[in-house]
Amino acid sequence: MKQRILSAVLAAALCLGIIGVVGLSLPAQAAGFSDIGDADVSEAVSVLSSLGIVSGYSDGTFRPSETLTCAQFATLAVLAEGHGDQVAESAYRTLFSDLPASHWAAPYVNLAQSEGLISGYGNGRFGPDDPVTIGQAVTIVLRLMGYGEEDVGPFWPQDYLSKGADLGLLEGVRPQADAAMTRGEAALLLYAMLQSNCKDGTSYVEKLAHTTISDAVLLQNDDTSPSGEVHTAQVYAGNSGLTWYTQDTALPDTLLNRRGTLLLNESGAVSGFLPDESTVRTLSLAEAKADRLVDESGASYTLSSAVTLVLDDTVTTYGESWYELDGRETVTLYYSASGSVNLITASETKRYDGAVLTGYYENVHPNASNPTSITLLGETYPVAEEGVSALAQFRVGDRITVSFNGSGEIVDACSPSERSAVMIGLVTETGNSCSVALSNGLTASGSCSDTTFAVGDLVRVSASSLGTLSLSQVSAGTSSAALQVAERTLGSTPLAEDVVLYDRVGKTHAVQITLEDLLVDSVPASRILYTAANSAGEIDVLVLDDVTGDAYTYGIFSSGTKTEGNGNMQVTNRTVAVENSAGLSQECLTGTAVPDGQVGGLVPSSDGRVAGLLVLEEVEDVPRSAFDGTDTVTLSGVAVPISDQVQVYNTDNGQWITLAQAKAYTDTFTVYYSGTLGTDAKVRVILTQSPS
Question: In 10 A of CB 304, how many CB atoms?
């Protein structure tokens, strides 16, 4: 009798749920969530989000203090064991009287029940909206790890919490069996599970991957491999050296420069990354010497010449290449279990070679005769040895033109009458003090009397006086020649190697693009708004007129009306906004009726009107097998690239999610694209279709 009562209590306890299906939508690659203050919770969420298990809300929050329901945690349990692709087989069944087949969580709960992870209350009910308790959550995690009642003990929940504590699963989790579990605690519990071994001694994380690579260091995210393959992760793994892996999952940037276990799927693509607890220290580099590194605080780190050094795309040793660390902002030291440094990596050299600025000489250190750094256009730059003599001809208050090397050091200076820089960029800060991200990668900052510019405006920059910038709109004017993309020419004029391109709709905010974003063979002269050439006569700046479609904000249209005016002079106008993972966009006035719920893109004008509106083409019933990772999807026999900013919507629960989560949720999709199939089509929005 006692045993039957305990079993009934335990069965009643196992009503469990998820973090990442209800109310969650940030992309996995997000750097973090605005409301997570605990570093341990933040790391747990980063790792779990990269695996498609958890995500956040569309307003950029994770809400770690909110509690979970039983239905949510049941779904989480299925995803945490890597069975999200099996839920379709459990759909359209009713196993519990209070969980109809139409319920969003029914496929997950049904699968969890069939796998023995949950049992319900024993009276035919599951209680999907009941809060899940810590005792219940710990029990399901132990079951995921292969532990049964015979391994834990007969007394629930005390024996289960005790076993969880012995296995190190409860770090940061309240040892209160009846307390409702929060989202933050659930993340910590699941992360601890990933870092643990199962009952049979195997690492739990091996259940989630086809192949694992241990002692791997994640160096680059969304990189381009030496062979030209895009969207790859650059990884260093000891004897395997440097390797570039295709990314099926976009890993959070917060995991960069960590050492741990890399997870690969059946295709050999990255499906996740689990950092280990080895010591990693990143230094702001002040000086590199043959036997040590010195950081900006003056601390010194003695190093063996045999320590492996990964420098850009090369594996060498510290003794052979320490001098090449000059000009690097940071270096990262990786320590062995014995406490010695066994690997060093470095940040990239800044790519400013040949960049030119013209402005007022604002400040100098230590003096103008022997400058080691000067301030120009609101920013302070170091002076290379070869630039000292040229700068010594000038004094604070003079107008000068300076040029840079790849590390961002000034190497030459002259009068603007000899050479003057064309400075174009995007406004990043406005008001009495403004800042512009220039096309050459540098920044111009200072006082600005014209406050009419908005963030994102494309402007020409000049220095009107000491400490003051003058901004003007980049004037429109068609080119006399077409852009040949493959040939990298504008007519017969070659493009510079570091050519900078912008795309915009009319006079609206511009977005910076690359040549790879141009999916057409050529751009007609009528679609080229502005060009600028460098001193070699090569085209180094191009502004295009709505060529790529990347200037639009994509999502689902939300239509409405707006009444303005007073008394008898009131006017009601139509409005439209776009909802996506970032929330609801600016509401714009429109003279055209836009159906509410239609999928498309929107560009607002500076006066709050519609400057550009694009209704996307639709393809229904696209199978999961049509997707080639996260890069392309085959539509009507044509491989169409997927935008890096693709918006993915779960139509069942009304939440914006990642593509990886969508592919785990269902096997059929509705895909929306801009452009024309076979030429410049690009996927912008994907909607899930109910699992079949």
Answer: 12
Q: Are residues 213 and 322 in the same domain?
A: no
Exposed, middle or buried, 488 (CB in 10 Å: 0-12/13-18/19+)?
A: middle
Return the H-helix or E-strand segment holding 366.
Answer: none
Helix or strand (DSSP H, E) at 496:
strand 493-504
Shared domain check, 163 and 70: yes
Asked if 270 and 251 touch (Cβ cutoff 8 Å), the reply is yes
H/E stretch holding 6 reads helix 2-13
CA gap 636, 616 in Å, rounded: 16
* Average pLDDT of the segment spanning 271-275: 92
Predicted confidence at residue 585, as pLDDT, reads: 86
Q: pLDDT at position 687, please?
A: 97
Which pLDDT does position 327 carry in this prediction? 65
Q: How would you label 574-609 residue by residue, b for 16+ Cβ within 10 Å and e otherwise?
A: bbbbbbbbbeebebbbbeeebeeeebbbbbbbeeee
Give yes or no for a contact between 622 and 635, defined as CB atoms under 8 angstroms apart. yes
User: Residue 532: beta bridge partners?
Assistant: 541
Q: What pLDDT band is residue 179 in, cutting at 50, 70 and 90?
A: very high
For residue 302, the SS3 value is strand
Range(s) of the domain holding residue 507: 483-545
- Residue 275, preceding peptide bond in cis (omega within 30° of 0): no
- Residues 187 and 46: their CA atoms lie apart, in Å, by 10
What is the pLDDT at residue 475? Answer: 66
Are both 176 and 72 inside the same structural domain? yes
Q: Last residue of a domain, which of 613, 645, 660?
A: 613
Total of domains in the chain: 6
Specify which residues 261 forms β-bridges with.
Answer: 274
Which CATH number belongs to the domain containing residue 647 in this structure?
A: 2.40.50
Residues with Cβ < 8 Å from 455, sequence gap 6 or more?
Answer: 427, 428, 429, 430, 509
State how far the Cα of 406 lies from the Cα of 474, in Å rounded to an integer.
27
With contact defined as beta carbons under 8 Å apart, do 599 and 556 qualify? yes
The token duo for 468 is 């003051």
Residue 491 sits in the same domain as residue 584: no
Q: E-assigned strands of 349-431?
A: 356-365, 373-376, 379-382, 399-404, 410-414, 423-429
User: Among 525, 545, 565, which residue terminates a domain?
Assistant: 545
Question: Are residues 491 and 594 located together in one domain of the fold?
Answer: no
Examine the domain organization and report whether 531 and 605 are in the same domain. Answer: no
